[in-house]
UniProtKB/TrEMBL annotation:
Residues 179-370 form the F-box/LRR-repeat protein 15-like leucin rich repeat domain. PANTHER family: F-BOX DOMAIN-CONTAINING PROTEIN (PTHR13318:SF77), PARTNER OF PAIRED, ISOFORM B-RELATED (PTHR13318). It comes from Rhododendron griersonianum. This is F-box/LRR-repeat protein 15-like leucin rich repeat domain-containing protein. Gene3D superfamilies: Ribonuclease Inhibitor (3.80.10.10).
Length: 393
């Protein structure tokens, strides 16, 4: 009994110790005391960061952390041997056998995972609500039905060496309402199948992010995807798109189908055609955050016209928008009285005088990202008086 009480007391002490970066230093220090202390320290870990290799014996290592709830793993892709290519599957199977209380798993830079390890994970970790993985083609999302608690999903679609036979997984659609609230997809190609059921099943979605996507999958499901914005994505509040190869027409169709409840929108390095931003401003008057970074063709007239309708903006990013000039910066503080954070880095048309005027007149500004050469002494003085953090590079 005394031993149990001592262990419980020691666990409480270890829980109150300050953690080192990614938790590793604390384990190293405790291990110098005794194996008992090391065992107790591991039993108190809820989050873990690892950079393992295929020969590390990750399964036996994870078994020492019975209460682990979040696992972040970075995989070294410097090798292409069979062990490395199957390493993500090994990790998922190890997690499934050793971490029953896991709620979050992030595999960084990992090779694509297979269906069987995903099903094993869903069976052994019923409380998993966050998952970040890579998938290869052909693509299928049927395994999502087996993860009833999943709310956040990040997927990178990774090309694999050699040819594969494309399978029309839309013919094997699943019919389920997923709990997903946040969905991040990276690398959808033209002609990819398996997305139609995914779009229809995400009725609880609040955040959608698409990166480096050539389309939305399933050549026949474009209208279905747009209809999902109208009929299924009613609660969508945040949309982030960074897809340069998407056509201007496709972008317009997608944006106009979004709910007017949208609070955050990012169109990064997209083909923003004339007239789209004006329509956007009129449609999304509740926008709080807007990111138009690296739209090099964006011009003052279009941007100013949009700002006239976006009176609720608090966070605005136009980094790399080379077509904007001082007139746009003046329009920001005139039209957007609630602005708190602004990023105007790499906008050569905006000068130091306009920045000075902006700092003086933007009443709620708390953070400004701009080149150091554009920050005058007057701007620095007023920034200090108004407690504005100027991130000058």
């Amino acid at each position: 009994m005394d031993s149990i009480l001592c262990d419980e007391l020691l666990e409480e002490v270890l829980n109150r110790l300050p953690w080192g970066p990614f938790f590793a230093p604390s384990i190293a220090v405790v291990s110098l005391v005794s194996k008992r202390w090391l065992r107790l320290c591991r039993s108190t870990k809820f989050h873990l960061f690892l950079r393992p290799s295929p020969d590390n014996g990750i399964s036996s290592f994870l078994s020492h952390f019975p209460h682990l709830s979040f696992l972040f793993i970075v995989i070294d892709r410097g090798q292409d041997d069979v062990d490395v290519l199957n390493f993500s599957d090994q990790i998922l199977l190890s997690v499934a056998s050793s971490c029953p209380k896991l709620t979050g798993l992030h595999l960084e830079h990992g090779p694509p995972v297979s269906l069987f390890p995903l099903l094993s994970l869903s069976t052994s970790c019923p409380h998993l609500d966050f998952l970040s993985i890579s998938l290869s083609r052909p693509i299928s999302f049927h395994w999502l039905v087996s993860l009833p608690s999943l709310e956040k999903l990040n997927v990178v679609f990774t090309p694999v060496p050699g040819e594969f036979e494309q399978v029309d997984t839309s013919k094997r659609n699943f019919n389920a309402e997923l709990r997903l609230k946040a969905l991040v997809l990276d690398g959808i190609r033209r002609g990819d199948y398996g997305f139609d059921s995914l779009w229809k099943s995400c009725k609880n979605l609040k955040r959608l992010e698409l990166y480096r996507c050539e389309g939305i999958g399933d050549d026949s499901s474009v209208s279905s995807f747009v209809n999902c914005f109208v009929n299924c994505f009613n609660g969508l509040q945040e949309v982030i798109l960074s897809c340069y190869v998407v056509t201007a027409e496709g972008l317009r169709t997608m944006v106009l189908a979004m709910s007017n409840k949208l609070e955050e929108l990012a169109l990064i390095n997209c083909k923003v055609e004339p007239g789209l931003l004006t329509t956007l401003g009129q449609s999304f008057r509740n926008l709080r955050k807007l990111d138009l970074s690296y739209n090099v063709m964006l011009a003052d007239e279009e941007f100013i016209s949009m700002l006239a309708s976006c009176n609720c903006l608090r966070d605005l990013k136009v980094r790399g928008c080379e077509g904007l000039t001082n007139a746009s910066l003046v329009s920001m503080f005139k039209s957007c009285k609630q602005l708190e954070s602004v990023d105007i880095m790499n906008c050569p048309g905006i000068g130091a005088e306009a920045v000075e005027l902006f700092v003086l007149n933007c009443l709620r500004l708390r953070a400004l990202h701009v080149e150091d050469s554009k920050v005058s002494d007057v701007s620095r003085a007023w920034s200090s008086k108004k407690f504005i953090a100027v991130v000058a590079i």
